[in-house]
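dumping this here before i forget
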Amino acid sequence: MEPQKEQPQSGTTIGATIEGNRPLLIEIQSLVSPASYGTPQRTPTGFDHKRLNMLLAVLEKRCGFRLGQQDVFVNMAGGIFVEDPAIDLALCVSIVSSLEEIVVSDKVCFAAEIGLGGELRAVNRIDQRISEAEKLGFEEIYVSKFSVKSVDLKRLNIKVKSFSNLREVFSDLMG
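structure:
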């Protein structure tokens, strides 16, 4: 699917998920802005509300991003509902991208579950996710270091970046 915007913008990332038997790369959009009316809104479309709250708590506690007074809107583009925890990393990066007004390249995608300690957890069928990203022309994919043990990285034309926690990912992405 062709992106429907002129240029990459903050708050947008691509996550590698599995729908049935098929790997699928989907666009995640986030909008983070100061709450105007007391209690901040947490509004996911296509994603579990409780999981969003958990990921926001991890970003605040483990990474130091101040989200307590921010409205957070999240959208899985294309009307899809995603239950795959492998989308967690893409969602977290999308939220921080919007909060900090940092554009993430549209040639980068993400596939990792996030634990309560901010650790990146391995996801199933990582080789299929990486192959699909490579096939679609992505240049880099960020994954858990625990996912890549079984993947033959030498035969790939995509750069696989593996990390153990969210802080390492943000340090790499945002310098």
